[in-house]
Design a protein that fits this description.
Blueprint: E1 2-3, E2 6-11, H1 16-19, E3 24-31, E4 43-50, E5 54-63, E6 68-74, H2 76-80, E7 84-93, E8 101-102, E9 105-106, E10 113-115, E11 123-128, E12 137-153, E13 161-170, E14 173-174, E15 182-188, E16 199-202, E17 209-215, E18 232-235, E19 243-244, H3 245-249, E20 254-262, E21 265-272, H4 287-290, E22 296-299, E23 304-308, H5 312-319, E24 323-329, E25 332-339, E26 345-351, E27 381-385, E28 392-399, E29 403-411, E30 418-425
Parallel strand pairs: 2-18, 3-22
Antiparallel strand pairs: 1-4, 2-3, 4-5, 4-13, 5-6, 6-11, 7-10, 7-12, 8-9, 12-13, 12-15, 14-15, 16-17, 17-21, 18-19, 20-21, 23-30, 24-25, 25-28, 26-27, 26-29, 29-30
Length: 426
């Protein structure tokens, strides 16, 4: 599947550019496509092949970190030739072997998604919400369609059409069976760069020329291909706004060349062609005096941070009362709930402002501890910790887009209750 262009922002920190010090840069990415509802997700487009060798259009896939979307679009040539869609079937899995199949041959009729009774369409689009699929997960997608066109009419009834019917698949790797069905791989994520492996360095330069080596990876570690100069933005002190390299190259400061070497690796060469506002004369400054060879890179990924914690949780842990441990992993948190007592308690967590449910105790006023005077209130995602097993722990993995609250408002002792500990994405 061909990767479409992304916007890569390379932020050259103010002041460090002008002093020749080690440089910290930020790289993030936003897709350049206008297509909706793609609002930050990786995007792929590949050929829809009918009858093994007829190119009838494209199949596009994108996501926004929540919804996974697919679109079948017949090409103008295919439409002009009379082709139309009558069925679509598609499936995804984290292992290609889990796509419905028999003896290595996929079974489109068993795919969970699509429409098996289209009234003759030129396009089809569908979005789903994959459950419990972490961002940055490589997945496999099989996208099948049935296309038809009228090739004539019967002799007995000149109004009764004769159809050519072909099975079509989104181009990719072949299944292990005997038919020609194909599938493709896709990175389910919001296009955020792989923080551990992406980066930028600057090589030694000669004749006032500097070469930046930039690695651009998606969340699954795959190289993002097809970037152009206009997709890369430089933010430096003497420019009023961040400026893409195509504009910068035309502005009289540098002649900039971009060479893509594959797998997300780019070489960007800066040839100085004009004077740059600088506290020293430009003609005595070479590129690696402005941008150090030991450039370090900070990739900004959204992550949960604690924004509210009264401190009672730490007190509970020190006193041998129920408490919560957590480990943050990007947009997910692994909570470990601990009940060291011989009494019943119930923890609770709330995801992205979800509505709670009233329980028999919701209107009861809490008469002790940090929640004194408050109602117990609704329940969200209760984690029961029964008595009779001191030291009992339970672990829950929770993912969200904006916020997670966790606390404890039910149990044998009001003094042990925990106000909401809040985590927000930053």
């Amino acid at each position: 599947m061909k990767k479409l262009s992304y916007l890569i922002v390379l932020a050259l920190i103010l002041g460090l550019v002008l002093t020749g010090c080690s440089l910290l840069s930020n790289i993030s990415q936003v897709p350049a496509t206008e297509r909706e509802p793609n609002v930050g997700g990786t995007f792929d487009a590949g050929t829809l092949v009918a009858g093994k060798n007829i190119n009838v259009g494209i199949v596009s896939v994108w996501n926004d970190g929540t919804d996974l979307c697919i679109e079948y679009q017949l090409s103008e040539d295919a439409i002009a030739e009379g082709w139309f869609l009558t069925e679509t079937h598609w499936a995804w899995a984290t292992d290609s072997a889990d796509i419905p199949q028999k003896n290595g041959n996929p079974i489109p009729g068993q795919f969970l998604y699509g429409d098996g009774s289209l009234p003759g369409e030129s396009s089809y689009q569908e979005c789903i919400s994959p459950s419990d699929l972490p961002l940055g997960t490589p997945i496999f997608i099989a996208a099948h369609a049935v296309v038809q066109r009228i090739i004539g009419y019967t002799e007995d009834d000149p109004e009764l059409p004769i159809f050519q019917t072909e099975s079509a698949w989104a181009d990719g790797a072949e299944f292990l069976g005997k038919n020609w069905a194909t599938y493709f791989d896709y990175c389910y994520g919001t296009g955020v760069l792989n923080a551990e492996d992406s980066g930028a360095t600057f090589e030694d330069n000669e004749n006032r020329t500097g070469t930046m080596v930039l690695t651009v990876l998606d969340m699954c570690g795959g190289g993002i291909e097809g970037l152009q100069l206009a997709d890369i933005v430089l933010d430096i002190q003497f420019l009023p706004d961040p400026t893409d390299l195509a504009t910068l190259s035309a502005g009289g400061y540098w002649d900039i060349e971009l060479d893509e070497t594959g797998n997300g690796l780019y070489e960007i060469t800066f040839h100085r062609t004009g004077s740059v506002p600088y506290t020293r004369l430009w003609d005595v400054i070479v590129m690696d005096e402005i941008i150090e060879d030991d450039l370090s890179v900070l990739i900004t990924n959204p992550v949960f941070v604690v924004t509210q914690d009264s401190g009672q949780n730490a007190i509970n842990e020190g006193n041998g009362w129920p408490y919560i441990e957590w480990e943050i992993d990007g947009l997910c948190i692994e909570f470990t709930f601990v009940n060291p007592t011989n009494w019943n308690f119930a923890f609770d967590y709330r995801v992205d402002g979800e509505e709670g449910e009233t329980n028999p105790w919701s209107s009861i006023i809490i008469n002790g501890g940090e929640l004194v005077g408050q109602e117990i209130g609704p329940s969200y995602n209760i984690v029961n910790m029964p008595a009779g097993d001191p030291g009992l722990t339970k672990t829950v993995h929770v993912c969200a887009e904006e916020e997670i609250w966790v606390g404890m408002r039910l149990g044998a002792e009001n003094d042990y209750f925990l106000e909401w500990i809040k985590f927000e994405v930053q």
